[in-house]
Design brief:
27% of the residues lie in helices and 25% in strands. It has 220 residues and is α/β, with parallel strands linked by helices. The mean pLDDT is 96. It binds S-adenosyl-L-homocysteine.
């Protein structure tokens, strides 16, 4: 008898995703736990809800993307976040990465240049009952000087060059993770403060992010 095609439950799909991340080197239990407890379908458009547990980037509003879960896991793990940390995130997008950071740190400040994306993300934070996320509509390239310095900074849009303004808002010994490069493929870099005003710079892998753009977006 022919087997009927069946749809895996969300639990099965999620378990498979976590296994895939683990096999690719995302092994930190706290990071995997945060991913496991963050419902990715909440952050995707209706058209793509079926694919929310796939390990791929998906389109969101305003021509932007929700990152691939593996890259979210890799970047979160690379950031070495501590429960006591104040974290700055540039590029809120869907708010998926923000939510994961909020589970691993004390406070997340997140900046987005599309008002629509910011509002949608704020709704999701409310739905999830997150109380340690502070949002700002603005140009994240300038960071958030009023709230600086930060223990950790994550940039989820590609900076064309070394993000000097952001590095200046990092605490001594802090960590910044960002995709750096002008083309369609960028280098994911980790900057770790050496405590003497300099940084140890590591190239982690190649990534594809939307660009970090100047100013706020004009929307109709
Ligand atoms: N972390 C997001 C991925 C977002 S894609 C997620 O998990 O869904 C990158 C986001 O960076 C886009 O929403 C884009 O609008 C935003 N962005 C690009 N340049 C920016 C800037 N200068 N300031 C703030 N946000 C910016």
């Amino acid at each position: 008898m022919a087997k009927l095609p069946h749809k895996d439950t969300h639990e099965t799909q999620l378990a498979r995703l976590i296994l895939a991340l683990r096999s690719q080197g995302v092994t930190e239990p706290a990071v995997l736990g945060a991913i496991e407890t963050t419902p990715r379908p909440l952050f995707t458009q209706d058209l793509f809800k079926d694919r929310a547990f796939e390990d791929s980037a998906l389109p969101i509003a305003c021509g932007q993307t929700i990152s691939q879960p593996f890259i979210v896991g890799l970047m979160t793990q690379a950031l070495r976040v501590d429960k006591r940390d104040r974290v700055l995130e540039i590029g809120t997008g869907s708010g998926y990465q923000t939510t994961i950071l909020s589970k691993l740190s004390r406070l997340v400040y997140t900046v987005e240049r599309y008002r629509t994306l910011m509002r949608d993300a704020e709704e999701r934070f409310k739905t999830l009952g997150l109380t340690n996320v502070i949002t700002r509509f603005g140009d994240g390239g300038e960071g958030w000087p009023e709230q600086a310095p930060f223990d950790r900074i994550m940039v989820t849009a590609a900076a064309s060059d070394e993000p000097k303004a952001l590095l200046a808002q990092l605490k001594p010994g802090g960590v910044l993770v960002a995709p750096i490069g002008k083309g369609p493929v960028q280098s994911l870099r980790r900057y770790t403060g050496d405590g003497k005003g300099g940084f140890v710079i590591e190239a982690l892998t190649d990534v594809r992010f939307v660009p970090l753009l100047d100013g706020v977006a004009k929307e109709l």
